[in-house]
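Re-running the complex after MR caught last week's input typo. The corrected sequence lines follow. Everything else is unchanged.
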Amino acid sequence: MSSLLRREWQVALRAKGAIINPVAFLLLSTTLFVIAAPDTVSSDAAAGILWTLVLLTQLLALDAMYRRDFDSGVLEQTLVSAQVPFVAVLTRIFMQWLSTGFIMVAVGPVLGILLGLPAEATPAIALAMLLGTPALSLLGSIGASVTVGFSRGGVILALLVMPLFLPTLIFGAGLVAAAEAGSSVMPQVYALSLISLVALAIAPFATLAGLKISLEMQ
Amino acid sequence: MLSASLKRLWHKLGSPRWFFALTESWVKVAGWSALVLLVWGTIWGLGFAPADYQQGNSFRIMYVHVPAAMLAQSLYIGMGVAGFIGLVWRMKLTDVAISACLPLGMVITALALFSGSVWGRPTWGSWWEWDGRTVSTLVLFFLYVGIYALREAIADQELRARASALIAMVGTINIPIIKYSVEWWNTLHQPASFGLTQKPAMPSEMWLPLLVMVLGFYAFAGFIVLVRMRTEILNREMGARWVRDWVQVRSER
Amino acid sequence: MLTLEELVCERDGRELFAPVSIDVRAGDYVELTGANGAGKSTLLRTLAGLHSRYSGAFDSVDCLFQGHRLGLDGLLTPLENFAWFLGFEGRDADRERFLDALQRTGVLNKAYQPCSEMSAGQQRRVAMARWLLSSRSLWLLDEPLTALDASAQQVMAKIIVEHCQAGGAVVCATHSELPVAQKRLLKLEATQRTPDGSVHSGYRDFAKVQDE
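Corrected-run output:
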């Protein structure tokens, strides 16, 4: 397990673009939104826009989740040589979340400010990101595992994965909106946590199955 | 004793040839009952059921919309169950079932969306309302499209089957979660409107035709799915002896 | 070490070749030949556990698999790749051993460079060095000679012979023969359908062919 984490860490340090590019995309798309529809800043729509943009960014990052290892043969080696391939999958999902999801705990609030959300909502945004992004990485991993072998897999990935993202979107945006309005965020906290837990229960197995299918297509 | 014969039945169900022979009569039953039920339900619902005091006659589109929405969801869950059976018991017929349910499911979901829209127009004055049921049905449509796109992208039959089964299962597990979260969202964002989701106390003259229509829709789906499955079986088992014999017997008639 | 019982790989519902039954024991070097598309890669991938569509059975010990794709992370150096790989076998990184292996295959000077900065041949040599470090006794190699020059091919042949003499076994799919003296040739013939619908397929097992 530690050798797996070590490799992920080494790769992350050397391919910083994988972490920075999604964030840049997020800021860029926020800018587009604000320029195109300035009235949405500070409006009731801001929380929803924030979450939608975060979601779309996750989608972009998911496309590359397994691609490098798939193309290089590393994935193949993992499935052949690992005593417990399940652990390797979990490690990959964890690192994906760390680099694209967990980072939203910091970036999300910044985006909130940009979209005119009140500063008091900042902790709520961070909490929503913390509880909601694991589900995105986990469920997204399922779609990524099945589409990694496709040449234009990105669109199919989006089609497969966006319906699964919907509950997290609803409760994530709901949490921020509730914090803005001053009401309790506990229902959304429970819901987001539950969704992430269900995702944790099904995603690693489904991902492993998906990876096996994709490797067999090679 | 019972478990042994049940096991035999289970194994037999996995055999295309046996399934084909078994369903020969089922198709006729399903087709005729669908015809009878749908005609009966349509005439009853459109013609004879009492008009709703609030909506007048436009509510009658419910006799198409509600069965379609129910069927759309059932077909997807059917695909998920078939996928599960296929992955666990390695039955190839389950992929035939999935390929049969998929296009029908997409059409029925589109019908549900369209009829919902038609229902909404005279009731609320707009062609489209983002209420809970509509959003759920729309998401269901996307779930179907996802599997469709996936199947188009994989050439190998067995890998396609495994991938479809996997995604159908994942989707099925998520359906209750999606429905619940959309309902929650709906109660927040839509003030209490006369919802398609509400089940007002309907007099039996109103919901009996609905029941007939629902049964008719399901019988129709059964008919279509069986016909498609049988065609697909003939297609896949083209080289087999029994298929050649069957075609020969048929053409001699 | 590896036993195949009436094993036939399938693709698109078709059987690729005739059922293969073979017993590979310690010290065996089996060369898998056949025309393109005969199913050599598919057979190896099946034995490695990557391909699940087959009928028949096989039984094998844990293997080392070398596919068309090298299985090296381009962003990592050979040493880092080795450390990651040996993690699967539950062994610690041992820099001395790593460097020795790289020296053996002639790429010691690349030890600290990311693999993406090397040529195809150099990367293959790194992959070869990895074989030396693995503790797995069964090697499944798919076209390992690709992109290797003559001297590297000689080194590979030596490595394979040493591995077999030390009690390991190697199954190697290749177009060109390896200069290994004692080998067992397994030739796969692709299943063919003749116009009238009949099927012709086969494989030939030449036990212990001796090279002059």
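None of the earlier attempt is carried over here. Chain C touches chain A at residues 48-53, 62-65, 67-76, 80, 83-90, 114 (CB under 8 Å). The first helix of chain C runs from residue 40 to 48.
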